[in-house]
Amino acid sequence: MSEQVLLAARGVRKSFGEVEVLKGIDLDVRQGQVVSLIGASGSGKTTFLRCVNLLEEHDHGDILLDGDPIGYRVEGGRRRRLSEAKVSAQRARIGMVFQSFNLFPHLTAEGNVMLGLTKVLGKGKAEAKDIAGQWLDRVGLGERRGYYPYQLSGGQQQRVAIARAVAMQPRLLLFDEVTSALDPELVSEVLGVMQKLAESGMTMLVVSHEMLFVRDVSHHVVFMDGGRVAQAGTPQEVFGNPESERLRGFLGRFHGLFGQAA
Amino acid sequence: MIQYYFDWGVIWRSWDKFAAALGLGLTLAVVSLAIGTVIGLAGAMARVYGSRWVAWPVWLYVEFIRNVPLLLLVFFIYFGLPEFGIYFLDKTQSFVLTLSLYAGAYMTEVFRGGLASVPRQYMEAAKAIGMRPWQRQRYVVLPVMFRITLPAVSNNLISLFKDTSLAAAIAIPELTFVARQINANTFRVMEAWLTASALYLVTCYVIAMLLRLVERRYASIR
Amino acid sequence: MELEPGTFLFDAWTARYALLNGLRVTITSSVFSIVLASLAGLILGIVLSYAWWPLRLLVRLYVDVMRGIPVLVLILFTYYGLALFRINVPPYWAGVIALAAFATAHVAENLRGAVQSVPAGQMEAAKAIGLTFPKRLWYVIVPQAIRRMLPPWVNTCLEIVKGTTLLSVIGVVELLLANQQVIARNYMVVEFYLMSAVIYLVLNFSIAQLGALLERRFSYIRY
Q: What is the dotted CATH code of the domain comprising B19-219?
C-alpha cells in the first residue's frame, strides 16, 4: 500500500472508571481504504470509533488525522484539550453514521442533510439544498427528500443518515454497526449504499457484524479482542488464516455464511 | 325547594361586559404565558447547565411558587410591593406580574423536563457533523425540546386562563368578577354563573382545539 | 427576644388562637375534600374505564366540564346556587363540596389513565384463571395501577390544600383569611403573608414527603 496514512492510532487507551476498555490500540487507515473492525461485543470496537470522533476522550496514546492529534494539542510536552470550537471543526472533517440513525426528528430528510452544510460549513441555502438533493439521489431517496424521519423506514432513515454524513465531504467516514438496528430485509439496501461509497474511493472505518460485507468490501480487517488488536491483515489473511483460538471461535459463529468460500 | 324562573334578559343586556371580561382574561393569560415562557427558558437553562449557585436559587423559586397558593401570591404581591416602595403597578399589572412569575415556575419545570428528554443521540449526531455547542442548542436541542413540550405548554395556557379567575379577588373585571357583580346586583344567580361557566368551558375547549392543531402541525416527533 | 407590642412576634402571639383556628379549617377542609374526591374519583374512574358506554359518556362529560371551569367559579356557583334553593349549607361545606367535585374529576381521569397503562394481557390472564370482574380489578388491575396513580393523586392533594384558600372568598376563615384579618388590624403585610406562605410550604412539603414514602412502598410494582 502506497497511499498516505490518513488516520493513525498509536497506543490508544481508554477506561470507564475501573474498567479499561481499550488497552493500547495501534491501527492505520490509509487514504481510500476501507478498514473494518470486527470482534465480539465488548471488545472495544465502538468505543474506539467514538474516540476517533471525540464523542469519547481517550486517556493515553495518540489518534492522528493527517498527522494532527485529535482532541488536544501538545504544548511543552503536555496534552492540552482543544477548545470546543476546534473540536467541532475536527469533527466536521470526520463523518459518522450511528447504529440508531439519530436523524433530527424535527427536520425533513433534506433538512437533516442541509443542517451541517449551512450551519457548520456556512454554505448558502440554495447550494446546500442542491448538495442535499444530489446525495439523497445517490442513496436512492431523492423522491423522499421532504419526508420526516418518522415517515421513513429504518433502512431509509439510515440512508439519509449516510447522506447527511457524506454531504459534509469528510476526510474519513465512520460507521458504527449501522445495520444492527435494522430489520433483516432492510440491511442490504444500506450495505449497497456503503459498497458504492467504498468503490468511489471514500476512506471508511467500519464496525460491523456483516461478515460477508466485511470480507468482500474491506481492504483491511482488524479483529479486536478484550480491548486489543488481536489480528489484522487483508480479509484473505484474517478469514483464511485465523491465528488465534478466539478469532476461530468468533468466525465459527458465522460459519454457515462462508461455507466453501475463504 | 323553591321555584326558580330563568330570566336571561339581564345576561343579554350585559353581553358587552361579558365579552370585555373574556377578552381581558384571555389577554392576561396570554401575556403571562409569554413572559412565563421567557422566565421558564432561562430557568430551565440555569437548572440544567448552570452552576450550583445559579441552579439552587432557581430551584427555590420554583418550589416556593408551586407550593404556595396562587391567591396568596396575588395578595402578597398586590399589597406587599408598596411596602417595598413599588407603587407604580396598578392592580392589573400587579396581577400580570404574579401570574407571570407563577407561569415562569411551571414553565421552568416543563422545559427542564423537556431538555432532559431530548435523546442524547441527537446531541451526538449534531456533534458528529461538527456543530458548536451553541449551534447544537439552537438548531437541534431547542427545536426538539419545544416540540416535546408543546402539549405541556398548551395545558399551561389553559390552566393560566382558568387562573385569571383569581383576578376577581383584587377587583379586576374579568369573567368571575362580572358574574359576581351581576349575581349581587340582580340576583340572577343561576344565569350569571351558568354564563360564566359556559364561557370558561367553551374558551378552554377552543384553546385546546387550536393548540391541538398546532401540535399536529409540529408532530414530526414520534 | 422581647415580645413588645407592635412587633411581628407580639402580634402573631396575640393572634395565635385565630391563626391556629385558620390552620385547623385549612387542614380539615383539605382532608374532607381529599377523602370525598378519592372515593368518588375511584368509582367514577372505574366507570370511565369499564362501564356501559352511555354511562361512560356521562362521566366523561362531567370530567371535562369540571376541568374546564375554574375552581373559584365552582365554589361561588355552589355557594350562591345552594343558597338560592334555601338549602341551608354553611359556606364551609359549600366550599368542600365544590373542591371535592373538582378534584373527583382529576382523580377519575388519573385512575382511568393508570388502569389503561396496565398491559391488556394482565386482564386476560386474570380472566383465564377464572377471577370475577371485581376480583380482577381488586387483585390484579388496581394494585398495578396504584403506582402509576400515586404521583398525580399526591398532586391533586396539593392542589386541594392550595385550593382551600379560595374558600376565603365566600367568607370561610381559613388560614389565608385569618392572616388577612390580622393584617387588616396591624398592616404587617409582608410579615403575615410570608408566614402563611411558609406554613403552606411546610404543609405541602409534608404531603409530598408522605407521597414519596408511599411511592417507595409500592415501588416493587414494575411493568
A: 1.10.3720.10
